[in-house]
Amino acid sequence: MPTPMPMPEPVGRFGRFGGRYVPEALIPALEQLEEVWRKAVVDPAFTGELERLHRTYTGRPSIITEVPRFAEHCGGARVLLKREDLNHTGSHKINNVLGQALLTQRMGKTRVIAETGAGQHGVATATAAALLGLECVVYMGKKDTERQALNVARMRLLGAEVVPVEHGSQTLKDAVNEAFRDWVANVATTHYVLGTVTGPHPFPEMVREFHRVIGIEARQQVLDLVGRLPDVVCACVGGGSNAIGIFHRFLDDASVRLVGLEAGGSGVESGKHAARFSAGVPGVLHGAFTYVLQDEDGQTIESHSVSAGLDYPSVGPEHALLRESGRAEYRPITDVEAMEAFRLLARTEGILPAIESAHALAGAMQLGRELGRDAVILVNLSGRGDKDVHTAAEWFGLIDERGTVTAPPDGADGDAGPKGMGPQQ
Amino acid sequence: MSVSPIIEACRAEGRAALIGYLPVGFPSVAGSIEAMELLVRAGVDIVEIGVPYSDPVMDGPVIQDAAVRALEGGVRLADTFAAVRAVRAAGAGALVMTYWNPVLRYGVDRFAADLAAAGGDGLITPDLIPDEAADWIGAADEHGLDKVFLVAPSSTPERLAAVTSRSRGFVYATAVMGVTGARSSVGDAAEDLVVRTRAVTDLPICVGLGVSTGEQASQVGRFADGVIVGSALVRCLTEASTPASGLMALEELVRDLAAGVRRGRS
Q1: pTM of the predicted model as reported, rounded to 2 decimal places
Q2: Which of A14, A19, B216, B238 has a 20 to 30 Å separation from A229 between CA atoms?
Q3: Rounded CA separation B62/A261 (Å)
Q4: pLDDT at residue B186, as a whole number
């Protein structure tokens, strides 16, 4: 037998998490991506172009909004929102996608594919593809195409092909599987614009770097506004990209608690949730070793959430390290708690948040009540709620399942609480 | 154990080995084992015993559909070992093809020990590259099991050398860039990949992805040490109106494939 060649050390680890658990066919593409990316981030032509796009296209820096009327429901703590919802395309997703689209051009590839749950990442990818003249195909679970029909229409208007995935749970997990399949077959011409901080190395690290701008801006903005650092930073965690983006600049600030809010769905004890840190165990899914909802045979368990964007059985590997090291905390928020926070922010501040972001707001309500009036809580408002209007209107009984406007519940104005598809589901 | 002696024996006969894939648990655990035993009787040299998995990113719709139905039917990971014992008893090599998470969850050392105890020859791991496989390589070496890693048309010379140097049994050459599934032609990429892989290893090289007929098996058998057939076999079972007609179609196809590898180099 020949002498074994020296094997490269495993790359892209966050402690024991991360890695590259993908077919060999994709390894050269991942190596190319890493090489091109590492050169680009130190190339002023690349960083300058990305900065110009952020300033003139995305709308960065995004602002900070203090929300005193909402804060009355948070134990009186000061609550500040980092307004990623005001970015072009309506969420933080554009930060990452513009970076990856520019890298696609640098790699000489002409086609991008993406997966999407709530549709925000798909819309952002379709937008960047239109801007840079790239062909774009977006995979989306069939169930998600139905609950996020508006975003499907947006992607198609932007020129993207949207492929409904009918396998498995027909949600984000299955869209990711399908995107991987496409990528294996078309890797020579195609870049997979992965939408969050998971997947094989270098995606978790690279996507984080594209989102670090959130925390860099927010930390300075809070210092300017309050004169000190926040006590807590709250962010929702599906794959975890908006959370890692805002957390990262605060990692060395020991006084700042970093709290990620997962989708608790109908409650962790119900089994219908996406609370990976509460109910998952370490394993491999979609290219990374991280926390995964799985059964005792290692089969992925389907997740559930009122929020399509958080409805995912795995989580970024860097979050797994932050959790195991104790640097960040993760809590589940139920659908009911998230929708109550959604309603409160709309009614008290005139802001409709994405239902994903409403999980972070619900976390702020919990933490504010725990910490009291002297606390300063920074919440990453990762996206706006336009895409979720149908879901929310159904939840609160303002429309029926066919989308028909119903009479105000109880003859009032919707304050009566969840109706329609609410928590009884 | 190892499949090397089987491939060597085929080589001595002047032909490529025929390797057939079926998933455990479809249409049932007993039904899948019956089908695997039939594969051996009809001329398969090595059975690739598939572990159904919820997220099979390397598989096309035919195998994914069978895996989903197997999981819905209640197949368990431990059923794999019953299939291994049956294949071994039928007289063929028994390699398990599995995505990595089920093994990880079961326990790498425990899986290796149980596989060896059942008479298995080793593992084919489509989403585990050698770079990430230190635990598996250690366990496989301890239990004398084959480590079948994959190479692809996109693999660089450096990757081919690194991957093959960690392989044991044979090297799995994926004939096309894509997922599993029968194709009308295997294409030139397969032969090119085999030639490039032979330049860096003495291990047998078996070609999979896309082979579905005796004629294709004959073509591939001219340049490869083994011909791997999966989706075409699975389709015999998924498209059959009755289990009996599925087994008949399966037997007919395997005999055609077995004849194909036997005329490959004549």
Answers
A1: 0.94
A2: A14
A3: 38
A4: 65
